[in-house]
Specification:
8 helices, six-stranded antiparallel β-sheet, 51 strands, mainly beta, single chain, 10% helix, 22-stranded parallel β-sheet
């Protein structure tokens, strides 16, 4: 460092070698070492510069003239910079560059210079992480002493290696202690100038927390570590905005942390978050209210094991498959006895659709050798050198002990897991449809979790690390629902890499969510293990959910659908483009299975499958679980199918419609009713038939065909061809009655009735009101 003293400038060094390095190379010098017991030593160059021991431990050189002036200017600059740092603090601004400066003591001069090339292999990730945490500590400590204060942290345009959470336990506790009553006016803003945080040698996947949310709820087991963790007890807008471009890049290791977790925030605005290459959850939120997210790009992140098992639940990247009929051969030894009975997909071996071969799913009936299996059905064609996949991992529960449908070698301890189709424990939470908890022990195909579902489930989808995770944990009281949140330009995208099978998005407990210009992109079949994309979007409770954008690479599951619904209260609208390629022989657009007795599930589907022949083979436009029903999925505006006589994907049900005027070809005009001519436009109303023959009800001969479609239908078809008009009325489930009447000229009116034996079975006899059986 430089110190200006009158007419001389003195430079002080920590050791002799550093002092020698500082003397200009042009100055020839001689070194004398006095051995008379004196502790001093000096170096003299031709210009008379002395270098001597200073304070017994440091070295100094004294300069005069122009050399002194240069050092003085440097000293003045340093002093000015220190004043500027203090000024920034006085204005509640914290700059990470101040903490990365070697004078702060976290990085050496050399480590500081290593930041500039952007090569994280030469960076000191421990020192950088400590510098970030020190800045956060200082900022939050200041805020804790200044109720109502505003604070801003500014990050430079650098690529930085990190190995710890950005917020220390001290910072997290300070934030948690800022209650809403005292600190409700505090605000924090973060500004990033294209800052990239790169995970390097992350120190621990999970840890026992001694602060904040976790300490408050007395959680004593290890929970996942999160690089950017903002959990506050006061439900106000403490964290008001995060702006600019900031990236969190994983190491591709299964020990990567969760990227971002947010809890209990109102009026938040986050922009420019990019996460990639991270084998964990990218963006996780709970109880975020009245907030907006823009340009969140979650790419090549997450992890969803399949029923293949093994270390990662994924087949090796290089293995390829060929078949002759139902016999499938692998290029490597990958099969074993545990695979019998599981579903396997052989890519591009199914039927042709849109000039593309579908992926073919079938059950494995035998494992003939480590390189050969036999499927229950033969694919449509024989193929060679194709990729393949198993179905996504599932779990069967017995309280907090869960048995996986395949063993996973990679330890799941300390990870978040979400069980689909599970009831949430606790009052008023029994119908959420998801349970997010933490794994506290794991061995092979058995895990022990912190929280049990209300009732046990069998073979339920086990979601390991979706890219976007919006749900609640058990710990917080109340609903903890994320509500009134908008996402614009949201992209959750898996890729074709063999070890990146992923479910793009999970919304387990939320309401009033609007997503626009979005893309949820599952894992494609260009590489193995794409079956991990069991669904593109999983909905637990989502009361008022609107999606506009693209669902792509979403037809990978033989069990679920591009959108999967498990909660009791789901009202969701979908608009945009559905691109299921590579589609499978058992794919579906939706899978709906809410709790038993659910009455508040309504999916309004505005996406249409691009194929004119879909569904075919074992595909389904809409697949329903034991508690799902066809009236839970309706169409917003189902267009005509592009192929003649192709099946209608989704019926359009409008309910009661009141209109003051109607136009177009569907309107019947100028019909005569009695002696009056109807001259105004009229749609065909109930009981109004065209007397010219232009408008006639559809001829129906099979009454059973319309039982499940409408609760009450009137048809002009009766027993014996006697001109009965019949009302078909569905009462409960499939229990129906039929009431028919016939009025003919010069004949008394006749009324008949029958029922389907209250079981949904065959229809009984027609009876007159006096009990006489009608004999046609």
């Amino acid at each position: 460092m430089g110190i200006y003293r009158g007419f001389k400038a003195v430079q002080v060094f920590d050791n002799l070698e550093a002092a020698r390095m500082a003397i200009p190379a042009s100055g020839a010098m001689a070194i004398e070492v006095w051995e008379n017991g004196d502790t001093s030593e000096f170096v003299r160059d031709p210009d008379g510069v002395d270098l001597e021991m200073y304070d017994g431990s440091r070295w100094r050189r004294e300069l005069s003239g122009s050399a002194a002036a240069a050092i003085a200017l440097d000293a003045d600059a340093k002093a000015t910079e220190a004043q500027q740092v203090q000024a920034r603090r006085d204005l509640a601004r914290w700059y990470l560059t101040d903490y990365l400066d070697p004078q702060k003591g976290f990085l050496t001069e050399e480590e500081w210079l290593n930041l500039l090339p952007g090569d994280i292999s030469i960076q000191n990730e421990v020192a950088i992480s400590d510098a970030i945490r020190a800045m956060m500590d200082d900022m939050l400590l200041w805020a804790g002493q200044n109720p109502g204060g505003r604070a801003m942290a500014v990050f430079p345009c650098l690529r930085l290696a990190v190995c710890k959470e950005a917020f220390s336990e001290t910072a997290c506790q300070t934030l948690w202690d800022m209650d809403g009553a005292t600190y409700g006016a505090n605000r924090f803003s973060f500004r990033f100038d294209d800052t990239e945080f790169r995970v390097k040698n992350w120190q621990s996947l999970s840890s026992v927390r001694t602060s904040g949310y976790w300490a408050h709820h007395s959680i004593t087991y290890p929970v996942p570590e999160v690089f950017w963790r903002w959990e506050q007890s006061g439900g106000n807008a403490f964290l008001s905005s995060t702006e600019g471009g900031w990236s969190i890049v994983g190491s591709g290791s299964w020990t990567d942390p969760v990227a971002v977790r947010l809890y209990n925030i109102q009026h938040l605005r986050i922009a420019g978050l990019h996460v990639r290459g991270l084998r964990n959850i990218s963006l996780m939120m709970e109880n975020v209210v009245n907030s907006d997210f823009d340009d969140a790009n979650l790419f090549n992140t997450g992890w969803q094991p399949t029923e293949f098992g093994g270390t990662l639940g994924h087949m090796p990247a290089a293995v390829r498959f060929s078949n002759v009929g139902a016999v499938v051969t692998a290029s490597q030894a990958v099969f074993d006895a545990q695979h019998v009975g599981k579903l396997f997909c052989l890519s591009q071996s199914g039927q042709v659709d849109r000039d593309l071969r579908l992926n073919f799913w079938a059950e494995i009936v035998s494992v003939d050798s480590p390189t050969q299996i036999t499927l229950a059905e033969a694919p449509s064609v024989n193929v060679t050198d194709q990729t393949g996949s198993f179905e996504a991992l599932r779990a069967t529960t017995a309280g907090t002990t869960w048995t996986l449908s395949a063993p996973v070698g990679q330890s799941l301890v300390g990870r978040f897991v979400t069980l689909g189709f599970a009831r949430f424990p606790g009052a008023a939470m029994t119908n959420l449809g998801t349970l997010t908890t933490t794994v506290i022990s794991h061995s092979g195909d058995t895990i022990t979790v912190a929280d049990a579902p209300t009732s046990d489930v069998t073979n339920a989808l086990l979601i390991l690390a979706p890219q976007l995770h919006v749900d609640r944990l058990v710990h917080a009281p109340g609903v903890s629902r994320t509500d009134n949140v908008g996402f614009t330009n949201l992209r959750c995208e898996g890729t074709g890499y063999a070890n990146v099978s992923v479910i793009p998005a999970l919304f387990g407990n939320c309401s009033a969510i609007e997503i626009t210009n979005a893309k949820f992109h599952g894992t494609g079949n260009g590489s193995n293990n794409y079956g991990g994309t069991a669904t593109c979007l999983f909905l637990g409770t989502a009361d008022g959910f609107s999606f506009s954008g693209w669902l792509e690479q979403c037809g990978n599951s033989p069990l679920y659908g591009a959108v999967t619904v498990s909660g009791n209260r789901v009202r969701a609208d979908f608009y945009g483009k559905l691109t299921p390629y590579g589609d499978g022989s058992r794919s579906a657009m939706t899978y709906v299975d809410p709790p038993a007795g659910s009455t508040e599930v309504q999916i309004r589907w505005g996406m249409v499958h691009p194929s004119g022949t879909f569904p075919r083979a074992s595909q389904a436009a809409h697949r329903f679980g034991p508690n799902g029903s066809a009236d839970m999925v309706t169409s917003i505006a189902s267009p005509p199918r592009p192929t003649t006589n192709a099946p209608i994907l989704t019926p359009t049900r409008l309910g009661e419609v009141i209109a003051t005027s109607l136009r177009g070809d569907a309107v019947t005009q100028g019909q005569t009713t009695g002696s009056a001519l109807v001259t105004y436009p009229r749609a065909m109303a109930v009981g109004f038939g065209g007397n010219t023959g232009d408008v006639n009800p559809e001829a129906v001969t099979d009454l059973d065909a319309i039982v499940g479609r409408h609760r009450r239908v009137r048809i002009a078809s009766g027993p014996g061809g006697d001109g009965y008009v019949v009302d078909v009325i569905r009462q409960v489930g499939n229990t129906c009655i039929q009431v028919g009447w016939c009025v003919q000229f010069d004949q008394p009116p006749r009324l008949i009735m029958r029922h389907n034996n209250n079981t949904g079975g065959a229809w009984g006899d027609w009876y007159y009101l006096d009990g006489t059986i009608l004999t046609p």
